[in-house]
Design goal:
Number of domains: 1
Strand order of the largest sheet: 1-8-7-2-3-5-4-6
Enzyme class: transferase
Family: Belongs to the N(4)/N(6)-methyltransferase family.
Strand content: 15-25%
Radius of gyration: 17 Å
Organism: Streptomyces halstedii
Keywords: Methyltransferase, Transferase
CATH topology: Rossmann fold
Low-confidence stretches: none
Largest sheet: 8 strands, mixed
Oligomer: single chain
Number of helices: 8
Helix content: 25-40%
Distance between the termini: 12 Å
InterPro entries: DNA_methylase_N4/N6 (IPR002941), DNA_methylase_N6_adenine_CS (IPR002052), RM_Methyltransferase (IPR001091), SAM-dependent_MTases_sf (IPR029063)
Length: 237
């Protein structure tokens, strides 16, 4: 039967203490996008960046989203290097990013030791329009592996692009929450009965998807509020 563990605290503090090997790492880190200057970055919280001014919900803010690009690349590289250590040969890393941080994310992925394998676009049908420009309709998942990718038995064929909008209404419990349906496609990169690690667990969507696909889950989340929400969702799953 699938099981789960959620560690409360900072990923860079907790990852070196773990010794359980995993089959896949799926990570939705704070993007640290937005804000043209350091002053803008310091002044804006996650809610300012990712939530419309007319939004009616009161979802909690989260930390770790004010790094400049060099700081972000260094931090993410350290996180991904620690997850690389815990990943079995052939295991994969899937890391979310947006257009602005795609180059920095690919740098961090490869600096951590992962072999970069490709980019999976994620299209969000419900997304922000841009005046006189193109709708912000896509984010991206970078795929890397530890050595040659695992050969599944039977062979699997996963999609080259994803589609799904953020949860809305009462089902949305995190500012940057990902759709479970999208995450269920991603966790299938792990072998049957395998273990998925998420060092930035947020509200636990990666874990919910892993459990629904019959996989084990290990998560890390530093926000007490988000961790409590994740634990409830994981227990329900």
């Amino acid at each position: 039967m699938p099981n789960w563990t959620l560690h409360r605290g900072d990923a860079l503090t907790l990852l070196p203490t773990l010794d359980t090997l995993v089959d896949a790492v799926i990570c939705d880190p704070p993007y640290n996008s937005g804000g043209r200057t350091n002053a803008d970055r310091r002044a804006q919280g996650a809610r300012d960046k990712y939530v419309s001014s007319d939004a009616a919900h009161t979802l909690p803010d989260f930390d770790g989203d004010t790094r400049d690009q060099r700081g972000y690349t260094h931090w993410l590289g350290l996180v991904l290097a620690n997850t690389y250590r815990l990943t079995r040969s052939g295991g994969s890393a899937l890391v979310f990013t947006d257009w602005a941080q795609l180059p920095a994310t690919s740098d961090a992925l490869q600096a951590a030791g992962w072999t970069w394998r490709g980019i999976i676009p994620w299209r969000k049908p419900i997304s922000r329009p841009v005046k006189d420009g193109f709708r912000r309709e896509c984010e991206y998942v970078l795929w890397g592996s530890r050595g040659a990718p695992l050969r599944h038995a039977p062979t699997i064929y996963l999609p080259g692009w994803l589609e799904g909008s953020q949860p809305r209404g009462k089902t949305r419990v995190h500012i940057t929450q990902k759709p479970v349906a999208v995450m269920r496609q991603l966790v299938r990169i792990a072998p049957e009965g395998g273990t998925v690690l998420d060092p930035c667990a947020g509200s636990g969507t990666t874990g919910v998807a892993a459990l629904q696909e019959g996989l084990h889950f290990i998560g890390i989340e530093q926000s007490p509020t988000c961790a409590t929400s994740a634990e409830g969702r994981l227990a329900a799953a």
